[in-house]
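ugh ok fine here u go
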Amino acid sequence: MKDKLYLKIILYSVLISYAIATFFPFAWALSASFKPLDEIVAGGLNLIPEYFTFKNYEAIFLKSPLFGRWFLNSVFVAIFVTVFNLLFNSMAGYALARINFPGQSLLFGIIIAVLLVPAQVTLIPSYLILKYLGWLNTYQGLILPNAANATFIFMMRQFFVNFPKELEEAAALDGLSRWEIFVRVVLPLAKPALAAQTIFIFMNSWNNFLMPLIIVSSPEMFTLPLGLNTFKGLYISYWNYIMAASMVFTLPALVIYAFFNRYFVSGMLFTGTKG
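structure:
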């Protein structure tokens, strides 16, 4: 019993130390976003500002006229990419799990093959296609290429393979069509998988730097990751502004994760490997 107790103490000590080491830089950055510049450059690791101020946040939105536009661009793109993925990935996953159609196995094999291709390989073809369509430097160019994702089509397919057929059969006996069964029965019970999908897709879209870098050319169309890169160049010595801008970039993703976290673990458990 003593050995187990000592092992538990060591384990928790390591985990707590790791949590503190991971959380402290973020806590300091959050604190620094409310500090004046001279307090930051003076050194010190105090987490409670001596002179608490909101002027850093006022400055980045008022003195940098494009910062608000970058933030709204990121929100707009991330929301639409997330909504489209939730719809299309779920529909594709359900079709592959439940509907028998010609070429079903081939299509599923192609989706598996796509998972093996690094995203960087598709950058140049994506750029050329968007150029041909005239979608460079546009919202549709930022949203539509990311409107579906092979990883989450596979994930939703695994979820629906494990979904009880009896519920769908009972709904069919009540006279519901295939589409009504999907919308009124299947999707409401797929909240765990949809929540897990929402977290990953939103964060991936919100943090995406490389694709917008290739597609977007005008500063007005920058998303926040691109804008922050420009912002840091303009205010390289103003760490108070940079910390405030970084918090504006970080907090929405944290809010999304905190909101959907209760579904996250169960969503991962439901997307097993049956079938």
